[in-house]
Amino acid sequence: MVLDKRNKLLIGGFVLALFVCYQLAIRKTLALRSQYLNESEQREQAKDIPVKLADLRKKQLQLDLQFKALNLGSTNVQNELLRFLNEQGTLHSVKIMDFNAPHMVRDENTVIRTYRFVLEGGFTNILKVTHGLETQANFGGITHMAFEKQLDPRQRKSYLQATLHVQQME
Fold first, then answer.
1. In sequence order, which ranges of 71-97 are alpha helices (DSSP H)?
2. Which domain of life is it from (predicted)?
3. Are the C-beta atoms of residues 170 and 110 closer than 8 Å to each other?
4. pLDDT of 145-154, one tens digit each?
5. pLDDT tens digits, one per residue of 99-127
């Protein structure tokens, strides 16, 4: 019986010693090991970042060159048309007075977008901008162009405005 009690005390003490060892040393060691493994994995992933970044920059430069060759700065045609008109306007001293949202007509298989805008400037300068619009850019064709002479009563000067409709079929 005494031996039985000693064995139980010895086994209980051994289990208690294992529990205390686990709480004081092993648990912290396991937590630090898992943290070390996570950080090692993050370091390995971080090593690849400069290579991936360089590849993405090369890819971006290639795509920029291709888009520039195709005259496709972005997928939004309205923004590109406005950008083109601003560039041509500053080049030929023509102002964009009005630029409206496109009018869309949907048929069975086609979508027709009509962009309406008003340019102000000299006759030849407006013609240069419209010529550039038809020949240099891929925005569609000019379906309507109306010139109107306006008089500014404050300054007693006249100026020319042209209303243009550019139609694009998709």
1. 77-92
2. Bacteria
3. yes
4. 999 988 878 8
5. 888 888 888 888 888 889 999 988 899 99
Say which amino acid occupies 82.
L
3-class secondary-structure state, position 146: strand
Low-confidence ranges of the chain (pLDDT < 50): 72-74
> ∠ CA 104-110-111 to the nearest 5 degrees?
15
**CB-count exposure of residue 88 (10 Å: 0-12, 13-18, 19+):** buried
DSSP state of 72: -
Which residue bears the tokens 């298989």? Answer: 109
What contacts 14, CB < 8 A, 6 or more positions away? none
Q: Rounded CA gap, 53 and 47, in Å?
A: 11
pLDDT for residue 74 = 45
Look at the block and give the residue holding tokens 């869309």. Answer: 104
d(CA 142, CA 129): 12
